[in-house]
């Protein structure tokens, strides 16, 4: 992946939300609309947003992203906007059909979380040819996309790698780790891997490494079983897992082999992942502030639908393999461990203590002071 990111300081990205509502107004006031003959320029608040998310294996898309985007669209359009939703369930062909349906339904703009960044390129062009701008959401789709928002994905991998090395300490010299990367069809997976390798290479031996088909926990479980068999139980000192779902499958394989106290990383701060962190089964996750990313996606979509400039919001530029200098907003991430659960997912309202600390986890929550 030849994606190049020119990032501004995290403070700018983090501050994007603070100026978000002003951004819509400032664009209108400064006369940043397209030619008055353009239909998008004439759009008011009556906007139909097509939302296409990639899969439902990862809890975040249905639980957080969809309702957050719907809420923000309503807020930005004085309750006149509409979100038309479809989930591809990890099926690239289905997602291409869903884009065709959105075009037929004459949505004004698309927010697209691609199943397969390369396979979706033709559909992105179809939308563009139909006059429908496309916001690539969370994953950098190929084709003529108009905007992109995600987290700093190389930094996600670095954050995971740094946390794993810190936890291993001197053990990093004594054994080997297994790397469980995400799906090869997801461009984010390549960036997570790039970031992790930039930290881990030369510091710890990678005994086995996998690109996990479709990010599925059961595939990660099978891969981990293979790694344990190949390397030997006494040789594995840690596991880099690119997300929480796969971490669950990995930990199941470790338990079945009688292995414990093996630090395993994750990403997405899924409820099950946070609960495993509470018990110590999983060492860390990467908390990505979903509300901020979802809000930015909605703001970019509404600006594009109304034919307004993105300059006040999209301060970053990202190159995809097919499109250069895509206006982008990159959101910073946080390493989530037992020590900062209160200050992250609970403080931000992602979960309540009661949701995390069910009867099964109450003793573990009490032990780490989570009440």
**Largest β-sheet summary:** 8 strands, mixed
Q: Give the DSSP E fraction (strand runs of 2 or more residues).
A: 15-25%
Q: Tell me, rounded to a whole number, the average pLDDT.
A: 90
Approximate shape: globular
**Rg for CA atoms:** 21 Å
SSE order: EHHEHEHEHEEHEHEHEHHEHEEEHHH
| First and last CA, distance | 44 Å
State the helix count.
Answer: 14
Query: Regions with pLDDT < 50 over 5+ consecutive residues?
Result: 1-41
Helix content estimate: 40-55%
Widest sheet: strand order?
Answer: 1-11-12-6-5-4-2-3
**Structural class of the helix and strand makeup?**
alpha/beta
The tally of strands reads 13
Task: Describe the protein in words.
- The termini are far apart.
- The protein is built from 14 helices and 13 strands.
- The longest helix is centred in the N-terminal third of the chain and has 18 residues, at about 60-75.
- Helix 6 runs parallel beside helix 7 (about 185-200).
- The protein is globular and about 60 Å long.
- With about 375 residues, it is α/β, with parallel strands linked by helices.
- The strands form three sheets. Strands 1-11-12-6-5-4-2-3 form an eight-stranded mixed β-sheet, with helices on both faces. It has a three-stranded parallel β-sheet with strand order 8-7-9, with helices on both faces.
In brief, what are we looking at here?
The protein has 371 residues and is α/β, with parallel strands linked by helices.
């Amino acid at each position: 992946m030849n994606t190049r990111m020119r990032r501004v300081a995290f403070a700018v990205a983090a501050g994007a939300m603070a100026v978000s509502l002003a951004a819509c107004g400032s664009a209108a006031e400064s006369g940043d609309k397209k030619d008055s003959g353009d239909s998008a320029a004439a759009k008011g608040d009556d906007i139909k947003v097509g939302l296409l998310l990639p899969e439902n294996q990862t809890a975040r898309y249905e639980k957080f992203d969809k309702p957050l985007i719907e809420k923000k669209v309503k807020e930005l359009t004085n309750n006149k906007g509409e979100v038309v939703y479809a989930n591809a369930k990890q099926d690239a062909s289905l997602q291409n059909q869903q884009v065709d349906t959105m075009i037929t339904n004459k949505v004004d703009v698309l927010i697209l979380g691609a199943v397969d960044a390369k396979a979706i390129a033709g559909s992105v062009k179809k939308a563009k040819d139909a006059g429908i701008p496309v916001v690539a959401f969370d994953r950098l789709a190929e084709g003529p996309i108009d905007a992109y928002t995600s987290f700093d994905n190389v930094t996600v991998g670095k954050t995971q790698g740094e946390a794993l090395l810190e936890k291993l300490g001197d053990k990093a010299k004594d054994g080997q780790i297994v790397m469980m990367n995400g799906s090869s069809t997801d461009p984010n997976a390549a960036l997570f891997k790039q970031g992790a390798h930039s930290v881990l290479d030369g510091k710890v031996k990678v005994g086995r490494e996998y690109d996990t088909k479709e990010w599925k926990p059961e595939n990660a479980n099978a891969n981990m079983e293979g790694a344990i068999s190949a390397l030997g139980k006494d040789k594995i000192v840690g596991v880099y897992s690119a997300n929480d779902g796969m971490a669950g499958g990995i930990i199941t394989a470790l338990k079945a082999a009688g292995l414990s106290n093996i630090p395993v990383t994750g990403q997405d701060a899924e409820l099950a992942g946070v609960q495993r962190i509470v018990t110590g089964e999983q060492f860390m996750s990467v908390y990505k502030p979903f509300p901020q990313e979802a809000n930015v996606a909605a703001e970019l979509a509404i600006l594009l639908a109304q034919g307004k400039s993105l300059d006040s919001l999209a301060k970053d530029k990202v190159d995809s393999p097919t499109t250069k200098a895509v206006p982008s907003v990159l959101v910073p991430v946080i390493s989530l461990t037992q020590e900062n659960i209160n200050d992250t997912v609970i403080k931000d309202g992602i979960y309540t203590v009661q949701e995390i600390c069910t009867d099964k986890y109450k003793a573990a929550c009490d032990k780490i002071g989570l009440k």
